[in-house]
Amino acid sequence: MKQINIKFVRIGAKIQAIQLPDNKLSELQKIVSTKKGGSFYRNGKRLNKNSLLKDGDIVIYVFPIRGAVTVRRHGKIWMIHKYDAHGFPSDFHAHNYVDNEVLDLYTGFLYKSHTKVKMAKLYKKDYKAVLIDLSERKDKKFSEKAKRILRDNFNLK
After folding, report:
1. What is the per-residue pLDDT across 105-133, written as a single tens digit (0 to 9) for each?
2. Alpha helices in the chain (DSSP H)
3. Under a CB-based contact definition with an 8 Å cutoff, are residues 23 and 4 in contact?
């Protein structure tokens, strides 16, 4: 098997290029020190230990962070921290570390995380789906805020 080149990112870290001796995910797991309970994703789909990688793949490693919730929608992974150190663009927002985006969960606007420039508005159905997912969580801080926004923005109970 020939060597393959992939791009790899841990949530919250920079993307790095890695050369693997084989195309099996197990080869990546040997190189990367993974935390217990983490998962690998490609194009928003979870990989298992038998998954085969292709040259140029971008693989994301997501691990549980205390006080954070992960929401997946259309290949994007949004992380909402319970105790986020900054309040940009609002006190209730989500991070997409792969694309360096921040989603204001009150308005649905997307911002570039480093420049804080407003880029666009998330599609209404995607924005609604993220909020519905959050509203169904056990953590009351997330679920009650999401329910309030759904009620105010989409007239949902």
Report:
1. 999 999 998 888 999 999 999 999 999 99
2. 25-31, 124-135, 140-154
3. yes
Got the DSSP string for 108-141?
A: -EEEETTT--EEEE--HHHHHHHHHHHHTSS-HH
Name the one residue in this structure whose structure tokens are 């789909």: 45
Strand 39-42 vs strand 58-62: parallel, antiparallel, or unpaired?
Answer: antiparallel
Question: In terms of pLDDT, which residue wins out, 63 or 115?
Answer: 115
What does the alpha-carbon distance between residue 121 and residue 104 come to, in Å, rounded to a whole number?
9
Q: Residue 72: what pLDDT?
A: 83
CATH T-level fold of 4-62: Ubiquitin-like (UB roll) (3.10.20)
* DSSP-based three-state secondary structure for 103: strand
Domain ranges across the chain: 4-62, 68-154
pTM above the 0.85 mark? no
Question: Of 24, 30, 60, 32, nearest to 44 (Cα)?
Answer: 60
